[in-house]
TrEMBL record:
SUPFAM superfamilies given in the database record: Glyceraldehyde-3-phosphate dehydrogenase-like, C-terminal domain, NAD(P)-binding Rossmann-fold domains
Domain (Gfo/Idh/MocA-like oxidoreductase N-terminal) ranges: 8-120
Molecular-function GO terms, alphabetical: nucleotide binding
Superkingdom field: Bacteria
The protein's name in its UniProt record: Predicted dehydrogenase
The species this protein was found in: Micromonospora narathiwatensis
Length: 342
């Protein structure tokens, strides 16, 4: 990019998430939102950029990168066309609705040498960023278990995937990311109570590569909106609420002397509780800033397509387990393994 020139960005999709992307892109330093693709047009009239019906119309405007916020079933077709035209892309999660489609996207962008990322926005939540930093520093000691709960009312905007691909992919990605460990195996049960084709509730038991136990409860059937991540280890537990971006630590009050440390683990007692003061920037803005920096060639922490593919692989394992009633191994290949953080 020429020094001083703004990046030219495009947006594909003006659903609920697409409108949020449009709001951020319209005010992002160093970026100009030059066009938006949506067959229905700009129903809100809030965008300053022109809205066109086809991707070809947007490509003709000349863009450096695009944000893909259309339905998941369209990610592969749109992404492959962007890659073929030399356009970098930030693709909303999940990367694609199948492992095969996600793999084709990875290969297309990698072979073209283009910057591409996946919008796993929870990585930019202040509570989870602080949690990850504290786990890396060893503040919890050995990690025993990660438990997430993600539930709320049914979003009528989602029609092409079920709760596993839409919501549980958040928990799969954030769990691997905060712990620095890959999933090794998963077992899941799903139900569909809303009369839709896809599942709307899932319960997961899994294991990470180091033996850490994982539990996820995800549904679209509750009037209670909940987004919680609890990580338990030998020094206590962290509770991250990603709705409020609060992080709380509950300490194990067992006081170890040098002699006590030589003995076997004997249980815990309730100790101090600390709620941390965390700077709370909007996760979506941080996500866009990181991706902008990556497109500009700067060192930047984005969710790579390979990481997004890995999340789709684990989600596919959940659906396979729920269908077959068995534990599914999701051991990574050497190409998708992420480096351990601890």
């Amino acid at each position: 990019m020429t020094e001083g020139r703004k990046l030219r960005a495009g947006l594909i999709g003006l659903g609920a998430m697409g409108r949020n992307h449009g709001r951020v892109l319209s005010n992002l330093d160093g970026v100009e939102l030059v066009g938006v693709v949506d067959p229905a047009g700009d129903v809100t009239g809030a965008l300053r950029a022109p809205v066109v019906p086809e991707l070809g119309d947007l490509l003709a405007m000349g863009i450096d990168y695009a944000v893909v916020a259309c339905p998941t079933a369209l990610h592969e077709r749109i992404g492959l066309e962007l890659a073929a035209n030399g356009v970098c892309a930030l693709i909303e999660k999940p990367l694609a609705q199948s492992v095969e489609a996600a793999t084709r996207l990875v290969e297309a962008f990698e072979s073209a040498g283009l910057v591409a990322g996946v919008g796993h926005i929870e990585r930019y939540n202040p509570a989870l960023q602080s949690l990850r930093t504290r786990l890396e520093a060893g503040e919890l000691g050995e990690v025993f278990q990660v438990v997430t709960r993600r539930q709320g009312p049914f979003p009528h905007r989602i029609a092409d995937v079920g709760v596993v691909m839409d919501l549980a992919t958040h928990d799969i990605d954030l769990t691997a990311w905060v712990t620095g460990r890959e999933y090794a195996s998963v077992a899941a049960r799903t139900v569909s109570r809303s009369g839709r084709l896809h599942e709307d509730m899932v319960a997961v038991v899994g294991q990470l590569s180091d033996g850490t136990m994982v539990n996820h409860l995800v549904n679209w059937l509750s009037p209670l909106k909940e987004r919680s991540t609890v990580v338990t280890g030998d020094k206590g537990c962290f509770v991250a609420d990603t709705l409020t971006a609060d992080l709380t630590f509950y300490a194990n009050a067992a006081i170890d002397t040098e002699w006590e440390a030589l003995r076997a683990f004997r249980g815990v007692a309730e100790g101090d509780m600390v709620r941390y003061a965390i700077p709370k920037r909007e996760p979506l803005l941080v996500e866009h800033e990181r991706f902008r920096d990556a497109v500009e060639g700067k060192q930047s922490d984005i969710v790579t397509l390979r990481q997004g593919l890995r999340t789709v692989q684990v989600a596919a394992g959940l659906l396979e387990s729920a269908s077959d009633g068995k534990v599914v191994s999701v051991a990574p290949t050497s190409s998708d393994a992420e480096p351990a953080l601890r």
